[in-house]
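Justification of computing resources. Each target in the renewal requires a structure prediction run like the one illustrated here; the chain below, 159 residues long, is used simply to show the kind of job we budget for.
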Amino acid sequence: MTNTGMSAEMRQAIKDSINKEQMSHDFYADAAAKVKSKDLTDLFEELAEEELGHRTFLEKVLAEESFSHPIRAQKTDFHLAEEVIAEKPDLTTDMPFDAAIALAIKREEEAMTLYQELADEITGNKEMYDMFINLRNMEQAHKTRLESIYMNVAYSEVW
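Resulting structure tokens:
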């Protein structure tokens, strides 16, 4: 993408996305501090760091006014968030590991849906549409990774 300058609308959308990533970081950091399980603390701390990475990525996009390279959609989507995990579990101090991962998966699914809806609202601005699809794909990568962990934990007794 060439640096032709972003519209004010695109800049605002990225700023809103930066705020969303910060809120996700804060949620996961807070969750890490609340849960009793060391494994869950580690998982939530890792997710918090990844959300900071997303924020940093978006800040770079905003500063450079371009995506240096597109983010591809994941080849694999397990669709656990849509088909297996019906409701987002509540965050509790003693939640089981699979419920904590389910909570994170649902949060990533919500972010994906938000970015897809924003992309779908775009008409006549391919750069802005592509930006939201890139953001959706970034969240999908997170969701797919978490779904893989969930399957290993929730279905381990089946193997």
